[in-house]
């Protein structure tokens, strides 16, 4: 059994992280674009940002659905 208070706190934590990341992205979008346009290895900047968003928002979404009690269906395969 999953502890509901732990799931709730993790949902709030990762939800807050997601909101902060979106705020920072919109607030510093010009700086991020200028930095990534410099050439060379700077093309990695948007990739790292996208990966960070994916991990944080994915964790938030997973905890959110767990909090609502929605889980994937377990399918048993016959051998």
What this model shows, in words?
There is one protein chain. By secondary structure, the protein is mostly helical. It is built from 3 helices and no strands. It has helices at 4-27, 29-36, 44-68. The two termini are 29 Å apart. The mean pLDDT is 92.
Q: Could you give the topology of this structure?
A:
Layout: H1 4-27, H2 29-36, H3 44-68
SSE order, as H and E?
HHH
Q: What's the total count of β strands?
A: 0
Number of helical segments with 4 or more residues: 3
Rg, Cα atoms, Å: 18 Å
Percent of sequence in beta strands: under 5%
Q: How would the global form be characterised? A: elongated
Distance between the first and last residues' Cα: 29 Å
The parts where pLDDT drops under 50 for at least 5 residues are none
Q: What brief labels describe this structure?
A:
79 residues; single chain; mainly alpha
């Amino acid at each position: 059994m999953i502890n509901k208070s732990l799931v709730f706190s993790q949902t709030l934590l990762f939800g807050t992280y997601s909101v902060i990341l979106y705020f920072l992205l919109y607030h510093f979008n010009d700086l991020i674009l200028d930095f990534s346009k410099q050439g060379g290895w700077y093309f990695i900047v948007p990739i790292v940002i996208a990966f960070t968003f994916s991990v944080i928002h994915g964790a938030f979404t997973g905890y959110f659905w767990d909090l609502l009690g929605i889980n994937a269906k377990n399918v048993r395969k016959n051998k």
